[in-house]
Specification:
single chain, 176 residues, mainly alpha, Rna Polymerase Sigma Factor, Chain: A, Arc Repressor Mutant, subunit A, 8 helices, 0% strand, globular
């Protein structure tokens, strides 16, 4: 994890006291992680940017509920996840997995992202979320546990089942 918990706790405590600069620093510290997490679900740069800003707006609006000594990152991820779920419920039928993410500049990385997204779409939401955090966002099991408020053993178990489902899906699609 790039940022340390003490810094995030301090910034959150200051933000709760009305220090807007602390909120800006929190945003700058965490925005890339939250953006990548949302982008992996929605697959659209502009929608991911909007949802990221909305997540931080809701975080700020609900700052009185935030415990600076608690898991602030988990709280922001929860807000982000709820926004993604709402977005996908509303727009799932209009989102195409084959659409170009950035027209005119189709890079190999974008093609890979689409392929990964197509496979991940088949997984149940809970499994998809853990796979994204572990393998695409590169979080350790401990960090995932903090984000999801789960024990490391629970995270390992969920990841093991999710990997099995993913392998089954890949094997089925490869053989058919």
């Amino acid at each position: 994890m790039e940022e340390n918990k003490e810094q995030i706790s301090r910034l959150t405590a200051d933000m709760k006291k009305g220090d807007e600069e602390s909120f800006r620093k929190l945003f700058e510290t965490l925005k890339t992680r939250i953006y990548r997490y949302i982008y992996r679900y929605v697959g659209n740069k502009f929608e991911a940017e909007d949802l990221t800003i909305e997540a931080f707006t809701r975080f700020y609006e609900n700052r009185e509920k935030v415990d600076p000594q608690g898991n602030v990152i988990s709280y922001i991820y929860s807000i982000s996840h709820n926004l993604v779920v709402d977005y996908l419920r509303r727009y799932k039928s209009t989102v195409s997995l084959d659409e170009d993410i950035d027209p005119g500049t189709v890079l190999n990385e974008e093609k890979e992202d689409r392929k990964v997204k197509e496979v991940l779409e088949i997984l149940p939401e809970k499994d998809r979320e853990y796979i994204i955090l572990k393998y695409l966002e590169k979080y350790s099991n401990e960090e995932i546990g903090e984000i999801k408020n789960k024990s490391v053993d629970s995270v390992k178990g969920i990841l093991k089942r999710a990997r099995k489902k993913l392998l089954d899906i890949l094997e089925y699609n490869f053989n058919n």
